[in-house]
Amino acid sequence: MSSGGAWLDWETDGRTWPHRAASRFVECGGYRWHVQVLGPENAPAFLLLHGTGAASFSWRTLVPLLADRFCLVVPDLPCHGFTRPLGVSDLSLDGMALAVRGLLRHLKITPQLVIGHSAGAVIGLSLVASVRSEPATTPQMVFSVNGALKPIRGNRLLSPMAKALFANPLSASMFSILARSTPLGDNLLAATGSRIDPEGEAIYRLLLGSSGHVRGALGMMASWDLEKLPALLRRLPVPLALLAARDDPMVPAKSSETAATLCRNADLTFSDSGGHLLHECDPDRVRVWIEESLNNQRTNGVNAA
Q1: CB 206: neighbour CB atoms within 10 A?
Q2: Cross-strand partners of 26
Q3: How confident is the model at residue 150 (pLDDT cuts 50, 70, 90)?
Q4: The pLDDT of residue 225
Q5: Are 76 and 31 in contact (CB under 8 A)?
Q6: Is the pLDDT confidence value at 161 over 50?
Q7: HSE-CB for 144 with a 13 A CA cutoff
Q8: Contact at 8 Å (CB) between 46 and 59?
Q9: What string of DSSP letters covers 33-80?
Q10: Would you say 145 and 279 are in contact if contact means Cβ atoms under 8 Å apart?
């Protein structure tokens, strides 16, 4: 993907961005990154990765519950939110993981924990796999919230469709126009099965109205290939904690259940409600799950943060 399209402007669109004071912009690896760093600098580092079509704000309600004991690193993924490409970008799974790893190197931060939502969980797993030859820099545990951990139904249809839409820059422009002028944005939010706060709803509408962001989401879907994921899960060198909402209409809980059977050190927890954006509408539930998962690993003798 090459730079272009209507990108969000930090001075106008970002004026009320959640946790704005923690934001910084850095250039590395072919991107001008927007990333937030919160919490004590000497605390265990915790990387938070949002899903396709979202941005760092997706963690806005969970961040205050973790910032007292972790150094939180919360980026906008490539071509999402305020992270812009400086040239041609690789939005494949491997490309995303490589880009995030480059950002962490630039920040001189080695996360001990990684949490990802939906597609962000897959990026987190790929990130761990990409550094497995460097034990000193490998995160000690991965958390997945409604992780998109298996090829979605209809992938043979949707992937070519995303490629076709991505190939035509006018598709993203038309989508963003419709999102600004029709109920499209509200309908997409309703499809998540989650009830989030008005602040979050407004930001999702803002993102959907940005053709640059929409094109980034399309490019990510067009490049997504999970064929190697089962093998990655089988050889995952660190514990994996999975949280899945039974009422998630976008990523069935079965996806996490299947992943748990493949991973040698996985723990699966179900939530009866919350929908796809569980981490946004019930952050305290997610905080408790994180703490319980860490305590369980300590009990099992794993040196998790």
Answers
A1: 21
A2: 33
A3: confident
A4: 81
A5: no
A6: no
A7: 34
A8: no
A9: EEEEEES-TTSPEEEEE--TT--GGGGTTTHHHHTTTSEEEEEPPTTS
A10: yes
Tokens for 46? 């915790």
The whole-number pLDDT of residue 131 equals 62
At 169 the pLDDT is 55
List the structure tokens of 172: 């993203």
162, 221 contact by CB (below 8 A): yes
Is the sign of the CA dihedral 197, 145, 220, 32 positive or negative?
positive
Q: Taking a C-beta distance cutoff of 8 angstroms, is the pair 66, 90 a contact?
A: no
Query: Would you say 110 and 45 are in contact if contact means Cβ atoms under 8 Å apart?
Result: yes
Closest Cα to residue 159, out of 103, 210, 95, 225?
Answer: 225
Report which of 214, 222, 219 is spatially closest to residue 160, judged by C-alpha positions. 222
The fourth-level CATH superfamily of domain 20-154+225-299 is Alpha/Beta hydrolase fold, catalytic domain (3.40.50.1820)
Q: Is residue 41 over pLDDT 70?
A: yes
Prediction pTM value: 0.90
The answer to whether 270 touches 285, Cβ cutoff 8 Å, is no
Residue 225: Cβ within 10 Å count = 12
Q: Which whole-number Å values give the CA distances from 72 to 39, 63, 112, in the listed order?
A: 6, 8, 11
List the alpha helices (DSSP H) in the chain. 63-66, 93-107, 119-130, 155-167, 169-181, 184-190, 198-208, 211-223, 229-234, 253-262, 278-281, 283-299
